[in-house]
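Hypothesis: this fold can be encoded by more than one sequence.
Test: take the structure tokens below, design a sequence, compare later.
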């Protein structure tokens, strides 16, 4: 009897497309059954099914955006909503067997290794972060494997950092170093709006077989519809939460938050939302913290333990303007920021991290007093050298004028070598501070 009732409740409601304007299709006949976020199937003239999502309502009609091109869809095309009280709206059947796989934002395998194994338990891709008062505190220090980061922006397990860079400054290479070398149980990598040409290079060369073995890679290339680019971020976060809830230490790398926001902007503007800051509708800056806050420590369980999502979100700054709206909003939400500088990269130092403009909000609390002292002294030396760099290069500075500048001139070559690291070179926090101690001549 119960099975019959359940089957009776699963019905299809059919409407039709009234008009298509830009990226949105306007559908009539389904208003009484639809709500924001519902998935609807559109049918092209040749019968091709195109999944779509409700993004807004206007004049008693629903506005839908598709997960694929709307080719073949026109006025009068069928729109079908399947009403099933037990069916999920937006979610994935995530499984442990997804490790080592490359998937699209809808949970389909795209690596040629066959279909994914699905868990019987469904997880929503859009959910709230753990209640703030129940979340664990940040864990111990985490080896990121990059000397400049481990020594100057030391990261704790469960921390969230922003990686701010212009295009072509070495952001993807730095991410690949973190994915391979960071000390974590699982890595979840989201390539949101990435160049299609670079995907295989990143997976096969930068990430490599060993890095992929412990990773799940979610990909939506730059030619994907805005809904797919948006879902890539949500899917990656849901996968990270799945492993976090198992008590694991998860490293989430998302490249990039800017392209996620651009997708949100396309969706919002197409749905009729008014543009605000630099063309971004207000919903973008409401959605952004809702996503980023989901990363971090998980809720403490009854056994007193918790899983963690340590996250690095890249921000592609427009025109190298680090105060543009997305960069400014992300910097205010996260627990620290790492700045890549184009001039440093042009000078041949990679990773092109501007140590003086980068910070971690978990420092100095996670380092010893001696390590903090070393870090402050090294920063002061680099700041002194940068302040006088033009005069030093021109030969206008006379040695002996200022002891602090004299020290900077002597030590800067060694510090530059310390900050330079090949993409396949590994490092640890202890090793990084020991190397810094040797450069500064300090006694342990």
């Amino acid at each position: 009897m119960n099975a019959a009732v359940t089957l009776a409740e699963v019905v299809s409601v059919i409407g039709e497309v009234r008009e298509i304007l830009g990226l949105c299709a306007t559908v009539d006949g389904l208003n009484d059954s639809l709500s924001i976020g519902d998935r609807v199937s559109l049918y092209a003239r040749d019968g091709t099914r195109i999944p779509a999502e409700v993004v807004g309502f206007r004049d008693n009609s629903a506005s839908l955006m598709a997960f694929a091109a709307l080719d073949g869809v026109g006025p009068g095309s069928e729109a079908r909503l399947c009403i099933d009280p037990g069916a999920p709206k937006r979610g994935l059947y995530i499984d442990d067997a997804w490790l080592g796989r490359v998937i699209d934002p809808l949970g389909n395998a795209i690596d040629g290794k066959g279909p994914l194994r699905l868990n019987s338990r469904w997880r929503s891709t859009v959910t709230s972060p753990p209640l703030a008062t129940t979340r664990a505190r940040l864990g111990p220090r985490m080896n990121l494997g990059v000397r400049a980061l481990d020594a100057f922006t030391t990261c704790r397990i469960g921390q969230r950092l922003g990686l701010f860079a212009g295009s072509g400054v070495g952001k993807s290479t730095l991410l690949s170093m973190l994915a391979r070398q960071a000390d974590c149980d699982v890595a979840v990598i989201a390539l949101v709006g990435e160049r299609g040409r670079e995907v295989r290079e990143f997976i096969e060369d930068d990430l490599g077989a060993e890095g992929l073995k412990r990773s799940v890679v979610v990909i939506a290339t730059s030619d994907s519809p805005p809904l797919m680019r948006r879902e890539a971020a949500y899917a990656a976060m849901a996968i990270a939460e799945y492993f976090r809830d198992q008590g694991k230490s998860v490293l989430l790398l998302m490249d990039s938050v800017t392209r996620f926001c651009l997708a949100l902007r396309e969706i919002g503007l197409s749905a009729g939302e008014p543009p605000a800051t630099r063309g971004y509708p207000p919903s973008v800056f409401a959605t952004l913290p809702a996503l980023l806050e989901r990363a971090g420590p998980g809720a403490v369980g009854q056994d007193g333990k918790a899983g963690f999502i340590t996250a690095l979100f890249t921000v592609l700054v427009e025109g190298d303007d680090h105060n543009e709206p997305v960069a400014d909003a992300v910097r205010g939400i996260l627990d620290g920021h790492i700045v890549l500088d184009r001039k440093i990269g042009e000078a041949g130092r990679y990773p092109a991290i501007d140590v003086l403009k980068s910070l971690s909000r978990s420092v100095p609390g996670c380092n010893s007093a001696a390590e903090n002292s070393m870090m402050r002294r090294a920063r002061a030396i680099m700041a002194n050298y940068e302040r006088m760099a033009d005069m030093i290069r021109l030969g206008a500075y006379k040695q002996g004028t200022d002891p602090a500048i004299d020290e900077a001139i002597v030590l800067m070559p060694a510090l530059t070598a310390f900050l330079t690291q090949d993409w396949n070179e590994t490092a640890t926090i202890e090793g990084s501070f020991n190397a810094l101690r040797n450069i500064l001549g300090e006694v342990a």
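The chain is about 35% helix and 25% strand. The first strand starts at residue 11 and ends at 21.
Hypothesis status: open.
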